Amino acid sequence: MARIVVLALGALALLVDGLVFIYRDARTIEAELTQATNAALARAGGDGMRVVVRGQHAYIEGAALSEAARVKASEALWRVLGRDGGFRTGAVTRVVVTAGLLPESKPFGWRAQWGADGRLVLSGSVPDEATRATLLAHARLMFPTAIVDDRMVLARGVPAGDWLAAANAALDRLAKLVVGVATMTDTKYVVTGEARDDEAAEAVTAAMARTIAGYEGSAEVLARLAEIGTVGDCQILFDRRLAGGKIEFETGSAAISPASSKILDQLLRACLRCKAFKVSIAGHTDNVGEPDLNQRLSEERAAAVVAYLTARGIEAARLSSAGFGETRPVADNAGDEGRARNRRIEFTVSQ
Questions:
Q1: pLDDT tops 90 at residue 102
Q2: 0.70 exceeded by pTM
Q3: How many CB atoms lie within 10 A of CB 109?
Q4: Domains of the chain in sequence order
């Protein structure tokens, strides 16, 4: 009887050792297959997707650029795995595609911001990883001393035509500016900012006028202006600009009226001449309507002016906005003229 017990215990020990070996072998095979299938997926252009092997199933997860990309990814995996599966521990017998589709960007937008701090921030949508890599390489070539901050994301919806050529061209023009922003919205790309002199500004503007494979470019570039060295002188400059014009908005809205482009460009130039200082932008309304609505409207209008300026290369850290609704009138609200004066945007310069 004792001999039988000893034999049984020995057999059990061998079984446990065997199961442990099989478990470890399966884990090793899973890891190897995961590595191999992800390499195959990368070669097949499976941007946004990844493979996880669990037991005898391989799962394609993440998000694909298109339905065709999902099919291509599955076929690429089977070329590595073989379609017959098998009884070997860890052999994959099924590929499960759980990957959805990447979100579609409408409009398809991309942005590059070149700041006085030596940082180039790339953001917005790119169509695939190859395009991202090419853009980053071109950015580092054109801005060799810059800190390149990649915030780009993959998205569907890229317009027809040579999108990459247009984006690279925008980077080329941006590199000729002291500070600036390049933006692409579907088939239009725009470069705004400050050039070192009139000649450089004219060169960038002329270059942007040349179309690229169905993409239309334009520029809003100003020559570098002499800087103003005191808060008081900068405040006088802003006050003079606002005395000669007014920022207008659509009625009851924070949408800036097209008629305000001239005064806004003058204020933009004032910001460029006062680089050493911060600027606070305050919105005010008349007393028509509910106070709470007027308060919110004043805040939104001030924020809209900040957005206009930052979109044209002014550092966001230098700007702030606030709204005061109808609480700080400068004229009597009893008449149309007084109410018009109270609907205003004010600029205040500080250290």
A1: no
A2: no
A3: 15
A4: 2-101 (1.10.287), 109-223 (3.40.1520.20), 231-350 (3.30.1330.60)
